[in-house]
Structure to design on (420 residues):
């Protein structure tokens, strides 16, 4: 009887701890070749990192929701409807705040896509390397000090896969490399990203 | 670490000073048993063995595993539009180990002949290093899922079967052993784990002093 009570207590503790507290779903494995950055991986580490002005910049941790707050994601993919012939596909990476205020900004990639572009078409980016000259696409850096200047850059999608798991429900993954001029004097170098994706992150 | 070494020395101190003992140089080859692994090593060791009875020997072993470097093909990528998107990279993995072990031989068969079969096992401390080197254009390219050098010290155990043939001048033996860390994990997504070596060794047992136990 006592043993059963202990088991019940342990199960309840586990249950409520999961409800109350969120879990970290980001894995940071330091790159031995790039001090302060995570490795370039395609295993779902849920992280983007790179150097901005030679200082390490990384995305915030992904956390599951708990009683004390909803989930947080390090990346969202949205589509902006425009009045022009094409819409904007926007990838936004959210910063993990640091003491260096210059680095405390979010990085966005904006690509012009056809009006009919849906989430299933994201898979077409797999294996593509894009050179963005601000006309066919651009990067921005949004912070208190930044004024959202369009910047040129390059991005390589090593992986981009969306797998349907039900009506309007899917999972996915993306990984790759990027470098960019983020506007002003800010330069992003050695960027690498690796994310698992859920329907909550792809908002179109 | 110092406590462990002191414990090993303490065990040896309590061995009978008048017991027959042997010095045994050993060489061998070992292959990692982890799934999909091709890592191999040259094994070398020196044993000091005390014969404490007709069927039992206590062993102190210093062991060194020398790396056989293995080359893997890998891939590195770049965003630079003036360069090919990917290039081949060479990854070289070199596993090595240094161990101090206490072991025992238990005779399973061959009491009345010149040929004996033993169960042999060792337990002690081992320092393993698996070194990783990459060769590619590190200025312009980034390696995908890179491995990293790992180094760990921990408890190590091994065991297996040993065949021994007795001669007037000494003993020749061969061993088949399987070993590994008792509990050590690599906290990094490397393509390899700490080795679980399956080793084939050959050794020669040189008698240093004789006593009543040294008949077979």
């Amino acid at each position: 009887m006592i043993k059963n009570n202990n088991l019940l207590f342990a199960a309840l503790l586990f249950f409520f701890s999961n409800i109350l507290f969120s879990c970290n779903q980001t894995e940071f494995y330091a790159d031995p070749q790039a001090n302060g950055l995570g490795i370039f991986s395609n295993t779902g580490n849920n992280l983007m990192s790179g150097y901005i002005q030679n200082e390490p910049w990384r995305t915030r941790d992904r956390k599951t929701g708990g009683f004390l707050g909803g989930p947080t994601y390090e990346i969202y993919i949205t589509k902006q409807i425009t009045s022009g012939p094409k819409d904007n596909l926007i990838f936004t990476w959210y910063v993990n705040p640091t003491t260096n205020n210059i680095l405390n900004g979010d990085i966005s990639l904006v690509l012009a896509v056809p009006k009919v572009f849906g989430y299933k078409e994201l898979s077409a980016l797999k294996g593509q390397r894009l050179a963005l000259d601000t006309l066919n696409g651009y990067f921005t850096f949004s912070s208190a000090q930044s004024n959202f200047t369009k910047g040129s850059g390059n991005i390589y999608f090593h992986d981009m896969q969306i797998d349907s798991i039900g009506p309007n429900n899917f999972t996915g993954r993306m990984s790759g490399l990027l470098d960019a001029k983020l506007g002003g004097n800010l330069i992003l170098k050695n960027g690498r990203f690796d994310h698992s994706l859920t329907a909550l992150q792809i908002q179109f | 670490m110092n406590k462990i070494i002191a414990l090993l020395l303490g065990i040896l101190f309590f061995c009978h000073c008048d017991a027959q003992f042997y010095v045994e140089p050993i060489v061998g080859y070992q292959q990692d048993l982890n799934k999909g692994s091709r890592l191999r090593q040259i094994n070398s060791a020196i044993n000091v063995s005390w014969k404490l009875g007709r069927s039992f020997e206590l062993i102190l072993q210093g062991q060194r595993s020398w790396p056989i470097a293995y080359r893997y093909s890998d891939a590195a990528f770049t965003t630079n539009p003036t360069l090919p998107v990917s290039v081949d990279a060479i990854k070289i993995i070199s596993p090595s180990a240094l161990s101090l072990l206490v072991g025992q031989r238990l005779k399973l068969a061959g009491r009345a002949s010149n040929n004996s079969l033993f169960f042999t096992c060792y337990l002690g401390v081992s320092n393993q290093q698996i070194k990783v080197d990459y060769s590619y254009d590190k200025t312009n390219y980034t390696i995908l899922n890179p491995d990293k050098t790992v180094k760990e010290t921990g408890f190590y155990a091994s065991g297996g079967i040993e065949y021994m043939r007795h001669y007037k001048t000494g003993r020749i033996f061969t061993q088949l052993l399987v070993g590994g860390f008792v509990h050590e994990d690599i906290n990094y997504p490397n393509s390899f784990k700490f080795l679980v070596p399956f080793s084939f060794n050959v050794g020669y047992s040189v008698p240093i002093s004789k006593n009543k136990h040294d008949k077979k």
About this structure: The mean pLDDT of chain A is 88.
